[in-house]
């Protein structure tokens, strides 16, 4: 049995209970930010002095159902991780609790939270490529024929415009189709407002801030890939490379050799701006589960189940299980790799902060 497997909750409620119990056992200060939906919350544990000059903030559940892995990594660290000197560790659990409990990447409004941090008072970002893809990506039914038709349409689009343009059009975020894929929203979500409140309460005042947002899906199965939000010429990128090694230079492996999308409305950029630390290093960690095309299937099934599936359609349970498996495989080897690599990344981050 791999150490730390019991840190995984099998549903949102169990994950939240595990996190709260581990936080209180570790002597952490515990804070609950209640969602508009009764019974849901984003919970925050703070280990170390709240006013520390150096702080590490970790976030689980930005994409709802991807929160199982980040939750487990944080519970494992609370249970047996080494406490850094002169550093506060702020653990943010289930920032998108609706998506977590409903096994969806999105919020209750079909919003991809990680595209929601834009200026909603001004013109919203445009994504004309997505408009061309929308109807094909969002069919009224879901079966093998629909799945094949989507992939044929996407392959044809990629042949005309290039595969990188296809990936960017689907993944960067879109603000024109409320029922579409990777919809960034037209106003700030509850989770958007809440992470800003958490930032004000627990992250402002730091001199040095390390941000890690835990995700699943992209990359090789069971492998942790670190993505720095800054371009390679930025000083923070050099710091990220010093912390996590040259692996951060290989983000193309996540997109099968193509450049990553030009993401809009990312959560970590908003947190970094509002925390206003003198030095901030912001990284996303992806624990790989599936090849890129298979991961797209998971996103499409998630959307169809929430917005288009008839209540009595056959096979709904199997499709929901497919979505869950895309974000958190029920495989002890995968879960053990997540715990092991997550602990190693946290150790590198805390070592750098307390150097």
Structural description of this entry:
Helices cover 43% and strands 15% of the residues. It has 355 residues and is of the alpha/beta class. It has a single domain (5-127, 168-353), classed as Aminopeptidase, CATH 3.40.630. A seven-stranded mixed β-sheet has the order 1-2-4-3-5-7-6, with helices on both faces. Strand 1 (29-34) and strand 2 form a beta hairpin. The model has no long low-confidence stretch (mean pLDDT 95).
Low-confidence stretches: none
Number of strands: 7
CA radius of gyration is 19 Å
Give the overall average pLDDT.
Answer: 95
Helix content: 40-55%
Total individual domains: 1
Name the descriptors.
Aminopeptidase, 43% helix, 15% strand, 355 residues, alpha/beta, seven-stranded mixed beta sheet
Question: What is the topological layout?
Answer:
Elements (H helix, E strand, L loop, with lengths): L11 H14 L3 E6 L6 E7 L6 E7 L6 H14 L6 E7 L3 H5 L26 H10 L6 H18 L1 H9 L18 H13 L5 E10 L6 E5 L6 H10 L22 H9 L3 E10 L3 H16 L8 H12 L4 H22 L2
Parallel strand pairs: 3-4, 3-5, 5-7
Antiparallel strand pairs: 1-2, 2-4, 6-7
Q: What is shown here, in short?
A:
With 355 residues, this protein is α/β, with parallel strands linked by helices. It has helices at residues 12-25, 67-80, 97-101, 128-137, 144-161, 163-171, 190-202, 235-244, 267-275, 292-307, 316-327, 332-353, and strands at residues 29-34, 41-47, 54-60, 87-93, 208-217, 224-228, 279-288.
């Amino acid at each position: 049995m791999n150490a730390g497997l019991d840190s995984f909750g099998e549903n949102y409620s169990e994950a939240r209970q595990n996190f709260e119990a581990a936080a209180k056992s570790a002597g952490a200060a515990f804070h609950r930010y209640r969602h508009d939906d009764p019974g849901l919350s984003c919970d925050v544990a703070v280990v170390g002095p709240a006013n520390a000059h150096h702080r590490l903030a970790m976030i689980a559940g930005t994409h709802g159902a991807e929160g199982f892995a980040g939750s487990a990594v944080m519970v494992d660290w609370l249970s047996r991780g080494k406490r850094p000197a002169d550093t506060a560790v702020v653990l943010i659990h289930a920032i998108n609790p609706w998506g977590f409990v409903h096994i969806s990447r999105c919020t209750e409004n079909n919003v991809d939270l990680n595209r929601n941090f834009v200026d909603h008072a001004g013109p919203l970002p445009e994504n004309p490529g997505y408009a061309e893809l929308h109807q094909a990506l969002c069919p009224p039914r879901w079966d093998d024929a629909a799945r094949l038709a989507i992939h044929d349409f996407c392959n044809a689009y990629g042949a005309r415009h290039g595969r990188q343009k296809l990936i960017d059009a689907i993944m960067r975020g879109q603000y024109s189709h409320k029922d579409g894929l990777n919809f960034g929203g037209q106003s700030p979500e509850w989770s958007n407002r809440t992470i800003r409140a958490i930032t004000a309460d627990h992250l402002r005042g730091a001199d040095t801030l390390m941000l890690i947002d835990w995700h699943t899906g992209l990359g090789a199965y069971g492998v942790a890939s670190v993505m720095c939000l800054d371009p390679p010429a930025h000083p923070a990128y050099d710091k990220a490379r010093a912390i996590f090694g040259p692996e951060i230079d290989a983000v193309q492996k996540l997109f099968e050799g193509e450049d990553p999308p030009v993401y809009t409305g990312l959560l970590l950029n908003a947190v970094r701006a509002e925390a206003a630390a003198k030095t901030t290093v912001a990284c996303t960690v992806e624990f790989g589960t599936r090849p890129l095309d298979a991961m797209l299937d998971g996103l499409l099934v998630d959307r169809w189940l929430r917005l288009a599936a008839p209540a009595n359609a056959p096979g709904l349970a199997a499709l929901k299980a497919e979505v869950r498996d895309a974000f958190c495989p029920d495989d002890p080897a995968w879960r053990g790799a997540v715990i092991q690599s997550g602990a190693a990344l946290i150790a590198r981050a805390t070592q750098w902060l307390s150097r």
